[in-house]
Write a structure and sequence with these properties.
With 519 residues, this protein is an alpha/beta fold. It contains 19 helices and 18 strands. The radius of gyration is 23 Å and the shape is globular.
Length: 519
């Protein structure tokens, strides 16, 4: 490749594609290098099971953090759909099986469900007051995500002092105990501080994770991508082609070197096994900081294990619940399994000691209850559905010694937790593929690293950081590295993580400034 570019982007995840579009819109010549044969990284849709035409969002599956502004700026035909149900949490007491249903609006059905659990309206009032404060916080922080990094002082001045204490200074454990009474409700709230983060409620890592899960577009609402997550990649790919972005697949970057007037990326083509060398004025790393360290020497921050087991399923019909509640409501939102506060903390403690939790916390949702378009018309007519399950506190370290055996046991315990609340085991509802095998696939942290390059299976590429900087921090966008020509354009950036496009946008902005100022 003798052509020289303004910018080379390493990796074609959605953030890399977003960055490429913004750079191309500014008139820059852009190349994306992707080591795999397909683009999109974790934001792809696949037909996971032979002979079963269902396009699953295999890895990333819900959207909250993607700013509407990016969709508008890039003219993307990408739509997300609201879920009327926020969550359903099954439980049983002396009277039998029941469930807490929380709709997106705090309506009478929700109030009644909370009243049945707790025996009063106190928890409903606590819920309303707490999430009103969170919403006010989100409305302050969300508009800053596509601007230069604000300082902590700037954000703090705009936030109610009590809310700042509860969300930033106190641990999430302290805040939950101060605001809520019921252990199950504390757990429902806590889960947003644990998705993708192996931590206890007593660690501020949970606060940061919680904030990211509750600020998207100023509402924190998690929505279903219409047509599956792959539609986002399809649209970004379309725009890249319209804007003249070059995309080369099957090329793995192996070395990134800064030169006097630019950067040089060298690697190997999987197609021809020949060496490839590309030069550009700047480079954007849409790979993990660990991969960037390997190819450039730019040191990556410390890393905690990814801690999730991902299970995708296709069902012949929706399971019936022992509680008798309507599965079309229970599975439409986030279905919580073994996620009381006590269960979450107990699972973390066990996993921290290298033990598989007896009760594995997990959450699950049914894409097809909101959007059946990912199924073929024939499957939809037959009543088929998909389920996506995301288990917590299953860190990569658990799988290191005997991966396959631990995977089998963790899967068994995770499904057993779900089956506790079903009339029949989930296994009896699974569709069969063309080979007569059940339509279920399980991905461990190690398998996520192998497929996607996620270090230790960490979906955020490392610890999330507060979406602001200290008052003496000189970074402008939170994507900078020690090299003025190399930028982080993935989840490892400040304000990275999740399906957001934010680090892609911010890296493009930083790169454009560099292209104007560097010779």
């Amino acid at each position: 490749m003798a052509i020289s570019y303004d910018a080379v982007i390493i990796g074609s995840g959605h953030n890399g594609l977003v960055a490429a579009c913004y750079l191309a819109l500014a008139g820059k010549k852009v190349l994306i290098l992707e080591k795999n044969e397909v683009i999109g990284g974790a934001t792809t849709s696949v037909q996971a099971f032979d002979g079963v035409p269902a396009r699953l969002s295999r890895y990333s599956y819900l959207v909250a953090l993607l700013p509407d502004q990016i969709i508008q700026d890039l003219s993307l035909n990408f739509k997300t759909l609201s879920r009327t149900v926020s969550s359903y949490t099954p439980y049983f007491d002396d009277d039998g099986d029941k469930g807490v249903l929380i709709n997106r609006s705090l309506d009478e059905e929700t109030l009644s469900s909370l009243r049945t659990l707790t025996g009063s309206d106190d928890e409903s009032i606590a819920w309303k007051n707490f999430y009103e404060s969170v919403l006010e916080f989100a409305r302050v922080v969300a508009p800053t995500m596509l601007s230069p990094l604000p300082t902590e002082s700037e954000i703090r001045e705009l936030v109610d002092p009590l809310t700042w204490v509860e969300l930033v200074e106190n641990t999430l454990a302290e805040t939950l105990h101060d605001n809520f009474f019921d252990d199950l409700i504390k757990g429902v709230v806590l889960t947003d501080g644990l998705i993708g983060t192996f931590t206890s409620a007593n660690d501020h890592a949970a606060n940061i994770c919680f904030i990211y899960h509750l600020i998207g577009n100023g509402t924190g609402e998690w929505k279903v991508p219409e047509g599956g997550m792959g539609t986002l990649v399809d649209e970004l790919h379309r725009r890249c082609q319209e804007l003249g972005v070059d995309i080369k697949t099957g090329i793995e970057a192996e070395e990134l070197v800064e030169e006097n007037d630019g950067v040089c990326i060298s690697g190997k083509s999987a197609h021809s096994q020949t060496r490839v060398e590309v030069r550009a004025k700047v480079a954007l790393a849409n790979c993990s900081p660990q991969v960037l360290e390997k190819i450039s020497g730019i040191k990556a921050p410390g890393l905690r294990d990814g801690s999730q087991l991902k299970i995708n399923m296709v069902l012949r019909e929706l399971p019936q619940l022992k509680s008798g509640d309507d599965p079309r409501k229970a599975f439409a939102g986030t279905f919580h399994i073994n996620e009381s506060y006590f269960q979450l903390e107990s699972a973390f403690e066990a996993a921290s000691r290298g033990k598989i939790p007896t009760e594995i916390p997990a959450e699950m949702y049914c894409h097809t209850l909101t959007d059946a378009s990912i199924l073929s018309p024939e499957l939809a007519a037959k009543g088929f559905h998909t389920l996506t399950l995301f288990a917590l506190h299953t860190p990569a370290a658990l799988f290191d010694q005997d991966h396959d055996a631990v995977k089998e046991e963790v899967t068994k315990r995770t499904l057993a937790g779900l089956n506790d609340y079903l009339v029949k085991p989930i296994e009896s509802y699974l569709a069969m593929d063309a080979h007569g095998k059940p339509c279920i696939e399980v991905k461990t942290p190690q398998e996520l690293e192998m497929s996607l390059g996620l270090p230790r299976g960490n979906i955020f590429h490392g610890d999330l950081q507060f979406p602001w900087k200290s008052d003496d921090d000189q970074r402008v966008w939170g994507v900078e590295t020690p090299s003025p020509r190399i930028f982080i354009a993935g989840s490892g950036a400040v304000r990275g993580g999740g399906v957001s496009g934010i680090p892609g946008h911010n890296a493009a902005k930083a790169a454009l400034t560099a292209l104007e100022t560097l010779k």
